[in-house]
Specification:
70 residues, alpha+beta, three-stranded antiparallel β-sheet, 3 strands
Length: 70
Amino acid sequence: MVAEELYKLLNKEKEGKITKDTYVTKKEAAEILKVPLSHFDHYGYKYPRAKVGNAYKYSKAGLDKVIIGG
């Protein structure tokens, strides 16, 4: 049963149905959400992010969910 589900996921990945998440900088995220850059200085912790070096990068898929409201 687990093997069947794994096989289905692998086939979806080969077909390109599983999207890969990209990460954007604070400046790009501010442009996507149409908010000032300082918004991420105060509320950046509320968005899905990953630490890359000394800075944070924000998940594009997570930002899209914020825009859609889901």
